[in-house]
Amino acid sequence: MASASPPPPPALTPRSRWVALGVIASSMLVIVLDGSIVTVAMPAIQDDLGFSATGLSWVVNAYLIAFGALLLLAGRLGDLIGRRRMFAAGTAVFTAASLLAGLAASPGWLIAARFLQGVGSAMASAVALGILVTLFTEPGERGRAIAAFSFTGATGAALGQVLGGVLTDALSWHWIFFINLPIGLTVLALTRRYLPNDVGAGGGAGRAAGADVPGAALVTAGLLLGSYAVVNVERYGGTSPHTLGAGLVGLLLLAGFVLRQATARTPLMPLRVLRPRQVWAANLIQVLLVGAMFSFQVMFALHLQNVLGYGAGDTGLAMLPVAVVIGVVSLGFAARLNARFGERATLVAGLAMLTTFLVLLARLPRDADYLTDLLPVLLLGAGFGLAQPALTSFGMSAARPADAGLASGLFNTTQQVGMALGIAVLSTAAAARTEGLLGDGASRAAALAGGYRLAFGIGATLLLAAIVLALTALGRPRSGQAPVTAARDQVERAPAGV
User: CA torsion, points 387, 388, 389, 395, in degrees to nearest 10?
Assistant: First the structure.
């Protein structure tokens, strides 16, 4: 007997669009939460499963490598086979992998489950923004939707650190993965009901519609090797043959991918996506912004624990005000400021606040008091609530309906590149500075503090470069035209080909 066809999706009423945004944001929340919740539970995982010191890093690295390597490919395939289908499949893979990770009884089992989690995360998050921009086409609504979506990132990161400590202490490290199950299953149920069931540009035609298999192999292999090189900088060193060899081969593969896209009849990533200046500038600014904020997200947490003596739970609570302030700014003010002053002005203001934020962190006293020295500085983290929604608007500004998943995957990929930049540059610089101070006779706490301050200073320099790029490359739109509209007009006038 023939199976019953699925019910048609509901009409895109205002209510259903906002419920759909909640579904997308919930999936992104649990994915971001998972990235930070693991770091707090690492000592407990090591003790329970018997990880070696070097092997433990692969609990994080396996996830990052899979996630970073597959974003671009998943975004484009979502455009071809349907973004809802890709989002649902990714959420299902992530949820199943979370169950496997929670049940892990050996190091190899957990590492494999984490890799699978990274695959699912890439599939779901690569198309999330693509779904959002097709749901919200009116500029005011889209601005509010992007602000709400950006808020989930800050919330997930902060909640992950708090929940990681609480769940590990109260139950066990297994529950940092089990907590994903009810959220993932709920998202899957609501996805079928509320997300639009787009057929995809290829209607399932795959390669004929642009699923360039050689291009896919080149970009995936290049990003895999590049991610592998970056996450092993701390283990092998930034100038070791192991790191440089993997990085060089990865770059060559990515260069081959770009050449393939310029000449292929049906490219995986049509280069027209990067033609508007606002798009490539926004992606480059994001690399600098995320690379700089790595110095806060990781180095500041280490500073609290290793220099000021905070515990894991206290560290999460200490950083919670930043997430609250970012949430208030992104949800309450960002969309209105973008509409009133424009995305570029709002972006620059946010970047300026974050630069001041990192400069002040670089001047923290050795025995800093939380209420008088740290909390006032943390409030400047509100700049992220201004900068990220505006930057996301620019990054998605020129996405055609058929390319929305690709643009979303690209924007998420540059986010991972920025994180890799932070890991490679800031961690290496901080470690070198710490070793130098230890060699000069400084105490361990003082040497660590010196290394972290250097990382904050480098982060501030990256943000200054981002401000210059925003002021020069983003430019001003034509009179009476918003930046996002100007970029969209630019791409719509471009030829349909590469």
Answer: 110
pLDDT reported for residue 338: 76
Q: Quote the pLDDT of residue 204.
A: 46
Smallest CA-to-CA distance from 399 within 418, 412, 383, 385 is with 412
Are 338 and 390 in contact by the 8 Å Cβ rule? The answer is yes
The CB density around residue 171, as the number of other CB atoms within 10 Å, is: 12
CA distance 228 to 249: 11
pLDDT score of 400: 63
Whether the Cβ atoms of residue 129 and residue 283 lie closer than 8 Å to each other: no
Question: Which of 114, 73, 85, 62 has its CA nearest to residue 9?
Answer: 85
Residues whose CB falls within 8 Å of the CB of residue 363, separated by 6 or more in sequence, listed in order: 453
Report the residue count for the chain.
Answer: 498
Residue 204 falls in which region: left (phi positive, over 0), alpha (psi -120 to 50) or beta: left
Helix ranges restricted to H, 136-201 = 139-170, 175-178, 180-194
**Contact (CB, 8 A) for 127 and 78:** yes
pLDDT of residue 399: 59
DSSP state of 476: -
How far is residue 115's CA from residue 94's CA, in Å, rounded to a whole number? Answer: 10
pTM greater than the 0.85 cutoff: no
* Residue written as token pair 């739970």: 313
Q: pLDDT at position 116, please?
A: 92
Query: To which residue do tokens 């424009």 refer?
Result: 342
Residue 238's pLDDT is what? Answer: 67
**How close are the terminal C-alpha atoms of the chain, in Å?**
46
List the domains of the chain with CATH numbers. Answer: 12-200 (1.20.1250.20), 270-498 (1.20.1250.20)
Burial of 476 (0-12, 13-18, 19+ CB in 10 A): exposed
Using 70 as the pLDDT threshold, list the residues of the chain that sit under it.
1-14, 52-55, 57, 137, 139-140, 153-158, 161-162, 165, 199-212, 231-235, 238, 273-274, 295, 312-313, 316, 331-332, 397-406, 424, 475-498
Q: Hey, is 482 helix, strand or coil?
A: coil
Q: What is the rounded distance in angstroms from the CA atom of residue 90 to the CA atom of residue 119?
A: 7
**Cα–Cα dist 54/37, whole Å:** 20
Q: Are 73 and 268 in contact (CB under 8 A)?
A: yes
Amino acid at 482: A
